[in-house]
Amino acid sequence: MISPSILSADFTNIRRDFDIMNETKVDFVHVDIMDGNYVPNISFGPGIVSQLRKLTSIDFDVHLMIEKPENYIEDFVKAGANLITVHPNSTTHLNRTLNLIKSFGIKAGIVINPAENLDILKYTLSDINLLLIMSVNPGFGGQSFISSSLKKIREAREIIDNSGYNCLIEADGGIKLDNALEVYNAGADILVVGSAIFGKEDPTSEILKFKELLK
């Protein structure tokens, strides 16, 4: 599955980019929310998400790179999020935050940064629908893929498959056509792709190439 990251989209021509995602029937739209505190960058808030929601019926995969995400869950649900992922170290009571997300009838997930291990899965697999493995350090688009992420994806796949729980794995960061299949074969179900789609002259063609590659 493909989840194009609109962090790399052209916001001066955002309707065109959403038309492209609608026409190519991507699986998710990946929405990165950054507050300038948890990560050293700022993107946008629920007000912009609610405007973007009008442009598509595709599920919004909302990645909260913010401090105290529990204070904003309801706002992003109302804005149109279908799935919300949070960083475990950004919230004081992770279990409570995950259950808050699910209380609104949407899916919840956690995010593992490149230098973090998978130990937290022992205590969260029963609460999550998705594990997002960052293959770059979060905060900026266009970074290079961290190769050790492949090992982490394989390990996560084994843990999940042996757990009896139904949890998808998403990989985000530095994913291009030349490494997408390797990431997918390592065990990722969803690939977040940003600059490798929207940074190209023909985004439609690039999305179709990714979809063909992962058939």
UniProtKB/TrEMBL annotation:
Protein's organism: Anaerosphaera multitolerans
Recorded GO CC terms: cytoplasm
Entry annotated with the keyword Metal-binding: yes
Residues the record lists as binding a divalent metal cation: H30, D32, H63, D172
Recorded family membership: Belongs to the ribulose-phosphate 3-epimerase family.
EC number: 5.1.3.1
Residues involved in substrate binding: S5, H63, G139, F140, G141, G142, D172, G173, G174, G194, S195
Protein name as annotated: Ribulose-phosphate 3-epimerase
Cofactor entry: Fe(2+); Co(2+); Mn(2+); Zn(2+)
Cofactor binding note from Swiss-Prot or TrEMBL: Binds 1 divalent metal cation per subunit.
SUPFAM superfamilies according to UniProt: Ribulose-phoshate binding barrel (SSF51366)
Active site residues per record: D32 (proton acceptor), D172 (proton donor)
GO BP annotations, alphabetical order: pentose catabolic process; pentose-phosphate shunt
Gene field: rpe
EC class (word): isomerase
